[in-house]
Amino acid sequence: MPEQARLARIAGLCYLLVIAGGLFAEGAVRGSLIVVGDAAATFDAIAGSESLWRWGLAVHLLYLIPAVTVNVLVYEVFKPVHPVLARLAVAFALVSVAIEAVSLLHLFVPLVLLDEGGAFGGLAEGQRQALAYLAVRLFATGFGLALVFFAGFCVLIGVLILRSRLVPRAIGVLMIAAGASYLGNTLASVLSPVLSDLIFPWILLPSLLGELSLALWFVIKGVRAPD
């Protein structure tokens, strides 16, 4: 148990870094610069705050490192509970990180298009705006796909918590709800963009609550001795 508790505290600290990085990159940067449905306004906003856009990219890239660390450490914590479910959870999580990392490439496209003397300098302003906005939307699509796999991780960790009692059962329920909200958000964006616009970002509140609760419990308490 002391070893599990130590791993859990490290995982909790890394989890908090991921949550903070995600809130900054998605909320403070992309949320403030991307104007949904307006390619020109989005391109102009990125051009006017290029440094902020670059910081958002850098933070997002960096928090993928503690994200992978969390996945591996959480697997080690819950492996004694049910090895198969733990392996499946970490597999879902690592696939999610891989898709997210590849999707980040799209966010470099606006920066390339901002260089008027570069290879795309001959494109008309409207064309560059449209390409930049398309890249931003493709990132959102890829990120949504990544969250489908991460939803599987959240649900499986919630199930492992309920089976083990290493963490309070309430947090296990919250993690299952987090997975459901991630999956619901992505499915809504695919099946009904209008509905997606109505429920976002509120549908993701269970995700924030569940993940933050687990991260804080790990940092403060580690894990409890099994019953």
Task: Jot down its keywords.
single chain; 227 residues; mainly alpha
Describe the structure.
With about 230 residues, the chain is mostly helical. It has one domain (about 1-220). It is built from nine helices and no strands. The protein has helices at about 1-35, 40-50, 50-80, 85-105, 110-115, 125-165, 170-190, 195-200, 205-220. Helix 1 packs antiparallel against helix 9, helix 6 (about 125-165) packs antiparallel against helix 7 (about 170-190) and helix 7 (about 170-190) packs antiparallel against helix 8. The two termini are about 10 Å apart. The mean pLDDT is about 90.
Estimate what percentage of residues fall within beta strands: under 5%
Percent range for helical residues? over 70%
What is the makeup of the main sheet? none
Radius of gyration: 19 Å
Order of helices and strands: HHHHHHHHH
Shape: elongated
The poorly predicted ranges are: none
When the domains are counted, the total is 1
Number of strands: 0
Number of helices: 9
Q: Kindly state the mean pLDDT as a whole number?
A: 92
Q: How far do the termini sit from each other?
A: 12 Å
Strand pairing plus helix content: what structural class? Answer: mainly alpha
